[in-house]
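Why this split exists: single-chain examples teach little about how molecules sit against one another. For that reason, every record in the complexes split bundles all components of an assembly together and asks for one structure covering all of them. Below is a record exactly as it appears in the raw files.
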Amino acid sequence: MDLYLPLTVIDKWIVVHPGFNITIVLFIDMQENEHSEPCKNVLKTPLKQASTSQLVLTERQPDCQPLTTPPKPKETPPADPWTPTSNLKMLISAASPEIRSREQRRQLSDSSSEVLQTKHCLQEHLLGDEYEKSQPSRKEKSLGLLCHKFLARYPDYPSPSQKSYICLDEVTEELHVERRRIYDIVNVLESLHMVSRLARNRYVWHGRHNLPQTLQALKKVGEENKYIQQIQMIKRREYEHEFDPDGERNEEMASSFGSTSVNGRKYKSLRVMSQKFVMLFLVSTPQIVSLEVAAKILIGEDQLEDLDKSKFKTKIRRLYDIANVLSSLKLIKKVHVTEERGRKPAFKWTGPEVLPNTQDIKLEATSTTCSPPISESITSKEQCSKALFPSKGKQNFTRHSSLIKLVKSIENDRRKIQSAPTSPVKISASTYQSLPVFPNTIAQFPAITKHQLEGQSKTAEEMQMKCALSSPEAVPKPEPSQQPALSQPLGACPASHSSVSPVILPHPQSGVSYAIYLHPSQAHTVTTYSPGFMLQPLPCASVTGMKSSNSKILNIITTEEGDTQRGPDEPTKSLAAEERPETKSETSSQRCLKRSQALPESNLIKRRKSDEESLDTSLGESTKNEKPPSNSSQTNHEMDNVQEERQNETKTDQNIASCCDQCTKENIPEDEDKIKTKQDIPVAFAIPAPETFFPSGYLIPLTHCTHGTKAECSTKEKAGVCSVQHTAYSSPITGVIPMPASELKTVNIPAFHITPLNIMLSPNSIAAAPVLSNSCLSSSSTSSAPNPSSSALNFMLQHIGLIPAGVQVPASPVLQHVPVSSQSENISHSSGSTNVQEGKFLQPKEPQEPQAVTENFFRTPGGPNTEPALSANSDGTQRTSQGTLYIPQRKLEVSED
DNA sequence: TCCTCCCGCCAAGCA
DNA sequence: TGCTTGGCGGGAGGA
């Protein structure tokens, strides 16, 4: 039939052509539906022209074949314009995407109607079982397949000039799925900024343009959040749980944290979970994450999870949802990890390799290449930031409550450390001099404090002298270039964390901050022993400096762990240090001290709760202060919400570290200087302030790099830190106060290479000090490690309460001070890229599947009661970025499904 | 039996 | 107030 009719009359022609009656209806309905179309004003979703799966193509584009006519693929060659069918195809093809979309929708609608009819008929004529068998299997309805269909609709790399909009109604109708399912997909895609929400029912498709940047940012955040350590701790806890079948620990956790569960709806969103899930892969080496561990970490397990299996199951379900979408994106692939305890489902990262964080500058430099931002008026960096995390700011803060349990676990570990026998340690020449952290820390004190207090309060300097804790041989500060860009190491901590009061000292020259731990007996303003206070996280805002300093300390403490993340030319000075005014204030520390003093360590959580009320006001102010500048009123509003939410949801955690709270509220950089010049500071010793603590629950402020603060953040990142982030991290701990292992290390662990990270000590860890100190001394003696001076010993003993403040004990011969070498060349410092280090020191390179891989496993040779970290490993090869982890390795079988 | 994850209820949030 | 969004968990299919 040689009919070449224009579109305007095609309907008439179709009317007389029974073979296209469906098309007639379609066009007619197009007009009819014009008023009922929920997205009529929305640019219809363009069809994906390439990389479309056959399945979806087949389903979505019957290609004008009337439903009544079974498709005959080769009946009419598409290139032949001289047949009615091909002509129609050509005409339809020439039509706009909207027309195509409507056509397909109509066809699908008709198909749907037919399906319903068929269903009805089947139900009528078939028995129940038969009907069930006639239904599509679950796999055919899986979210992964649905996601494939969804993705097939849009190009992976859409043209920036042509925005692709997504109408949920349209999608749900075309894909024959419940709206709920589309949300699952969209949420995950949104977390990767493959889509972003514009309005109700409306999303915009970005494709994979932003994926590299997004992944890089996620990796960065994951590193900064020490996901590697979290994974390790969870694994360790899992292992120890085998020896804790009675669940005593869980009961403790439940009783301790049950009332402080994080229940923020937004913090449980699939978006946040997805981001965290991706982070895990990006920071892990090999990039295999078991579902169980991922669930515990990423989904944000709350305190009662162990007791509430159903809750854990729920979160596993969500992980499956996410994993299905990520699998459809070909970012991950399901595998199975077979370890000693059985076969566990896991996922392996198959997405693009994410550049290390040293590419941050590049990232920013190429930020202008980011896909079109939501706002066209913002700067390129902001564009990129928005492109990375365009969603609402409050949604970009990830609540991380999973560590609540980890904190408890670590607390338990600490107890074990206290009672664990010291293991002989092979100390290399380079590390030897740095191993006695406590002596070293003390030794560093004069230099550090001298730098930091130089030109400041003379009183403080005098107090340093009074302390007489350190030898004159100050440990030279490591080269700034050794600092990892994004290192997360925790600095050395006071010898006795249990009784010292940390204040932050900035280091104007190096741009680092140090924590000064005040001995209560010497602090005139402190008269009460306040163990709880000692465990409070340091102000995160000082992270900038802390990080640098921590790296330095780690250079001394740890061994031969190369840093691959930070270029030698990267500046180490922090903005925080540069911007720090030399002010004086004791409000923060004093308040902290007073608050902590008033709080029994045994009732820390209650203390925190009681403090919530008093902190609300100031916290709100502080959070607002922390709020980065936003680019729009909407962003402001969102950020306000973010802060508010953070305030509301983390205030219970804030109190755990009231000092941290105060510092955070008052903006740490200022506080640091305020504190450092505090009069009457009986400086016991100065140590690098621990940077990011391991909160049991914290927010991952992905937006900190996205909403107008990218420049600032990036600048800080160059210094190896983004204080904004860490400020956010400081939020919350529920019930247990995290304490970096560095504190332990300072006390005694150097010989054992305790990782400076992830060791969280509870207030009742005071008792650990003596034991640890003894161990340290013993170990130091055997290892010829430097020992603290008698002053230091007295100080320490006073700290730990073994002797009254005024009592002095003579220095033991073994405690004679040994000059501390400044050698640090061979001493590794923590890397900012935990995954790299983990891969280098803890795990083999990602193996080919299936094959055995080594998984970190926190097992000690001595059994569960032996502190794993204390299990000396002389080779020093098993080491995390945050320090050494002497972890026996376990073989894992990774198999793909 | 356990793993997966579909399905839909229902509550929070929003216009 | 109705609609959108999405947390959540029961329970069924599949291995």
